[in-house]
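Structure (tokenized):
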């Protein structure tokens, strides 16, 4: 299941047909992640927005198809973000508070990463796909096909073997969320219980973005 609502029409000119090299690269990425049932990476996250303090966080991300992801933060220690396929839960230990949001109602900028939880198909989810060499890797830039998503542009840094090493998401108000991934494991054993949120003792649970 993908967070993004997929637009099912065809491009007038396929990026795969117009640029065979780009087509081969994207096909390699799709093959790598579409065959995976689970995925685990170490991540570093940078958030910048004009007028707000720069934020740097990190930890471990685990994904399980269909539709589940878990972000365990070590920076800050104890922060937790879980998607169980229906709801999103964000727990912040500083105030011992958890928020629950319906998946379809969220505007969280992690949403572009959730395409890895379904059938990855660049041309169905993105438009204006372009790729440029960055050292030994490729930088792929794209825009979402629908205008009602919380972001307007996405960049992927892709290794030769199809690993996604970086995802940069830019919102309409110029906020930027930049993820760097390392130590990727494809199909590690991840039990279903990892993606079930348990409210910590004494924590307050609120609905939506209250």
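Design, position by position:
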């Amino acid at each position: 299941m993908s967070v993004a609502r997929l637009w099912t029409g065809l491009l007038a000119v396929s990026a795969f047909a117009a640029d065979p090299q780009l087509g081969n690269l994207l096909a390699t990425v799709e093959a790598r992640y579409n065959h995976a049932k689970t995925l685990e990476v170490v991540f570093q996250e940078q958030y910048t927005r004009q007028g707000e303090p720069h934020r740097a966080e990190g930890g471990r991300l685990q994904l399980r198809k269909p539709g589940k992801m878990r972000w365990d933060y070590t920076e800050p220690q104890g922060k937790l973000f879980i998607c169980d396929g229906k709801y999103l839960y964000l727990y912040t230990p500083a105030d011992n508070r958890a928020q629950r949001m319906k998946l379809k109602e969220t505007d969280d900028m992690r949403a572009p990463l959730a395409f890895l939880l379904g059938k990855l198909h660049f041309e169905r989810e993105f438009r204006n796909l372009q790729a440029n060499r960055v050292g030994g890797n490729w930088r792929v830039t794209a825009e979402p096909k629908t205008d009602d998503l919380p972001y307007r542009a996405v960049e992927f840094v892709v290794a030769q073997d199809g690993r996604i090493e970086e995802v940069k998401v830019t919102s309409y108000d110029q906020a930027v969320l930049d993820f760097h991934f390392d130590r990727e494991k494809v199909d590690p054993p991840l039990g279903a219980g990892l993606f079930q949120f348990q409210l910590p003792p004494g924590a307050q649970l609120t609905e939506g973005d209250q």
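Reviewer-requested clarification: The longest strand covers residues 38-48. The chain has a mean pLDDT of 83.
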